[in-house]
Amino acid sequence: MKVHPKVKSKLHPRSKHRERYDFNRLIESCPDLAQFVQLNVYKDESIDFSNPEAVIMLNKALLKKDYSIDYWTIPPNYLCPPIPGRADYIHYMADLLGGSNYGKMPKGDQIKCLDIGVGASCIYPIIGNAIYGWSFIGSDIDAVSIESAQQIIEQNPSLKGKVELRLQANPKDIFYGIITKDERIDLSICNPPFHASPAEAKSGSLRKVRNLSGKKITKPILNFGGQNAELWYEGGERKFVRNMIRESKKFADSCFWFSSLISKQSNLKSVYEALKNAEASEVKTIPMGQGNKTSRIVVWTFLSKEQQKEWRNKRWNKL
Which CATH superfamily is domain 81-193+233-316 in? Predict the structure, then answer.
């Protein structure tokens, strides 16, 4: 019989998800999860991760148990996020802010984070607010995503007044139309569209379900399909992030740290080139890993050391 590791050592040290899921406690939080729990190949309790209903119910239970979120749902055929990976991004960004603040991690709602592509799940604001108390602006080009995220905010008192949603009217813009004049953002985060075309996105969704289920699937399953804006962008991840970098320069004084997930290692060279062209003053690459998958976050700022010091003194040293 296979032996599984007790701790998911690739996850961030502060992650609530490093240990295996305690399904007894999760079912206590969300009794509806019980119907989806079964024994896996290790003879351990688990769920069928190729079943969208099961994954959504697991997310509901995790969000209630670990983040005190009583209401959470997403519309049919919208992406269902893997919570441990999303939480890791937030933890690494907290480390980044701490490293920029003499080791003291800035917490509380005076810290403002912009989530580009907040999605129907509102997942990054939920986690960032629950763990670090940050306030969020969530932007999206999809009105249904904004409506779904707004419903989640309204149904959870802890999020009210802490997360503001803004619909991006121009799909070609990222920061324009979202960051207002004289607004200051401590951190921007983004999980960019991965694929370069609808066909590539469909193929990726099918591959994901096949890998999870071990079955030959020819049609994407609801909730693993995702919407166009969530999955693909002309030119794919590389083009999206390069456009984001170019536009971020126009908001150089508005945001301390810009950041983006980069799923494909092969895109890094092009991203670094764009950052050099944009004359970013500082660039860092933060490795991330969940299970067998490796990813990374690229972060950049245009602020000089003196401007960074001024930002700290004005915004963070009062916390």
Answer: Vaccinia Virus protein VP39 (3.40.50.150)
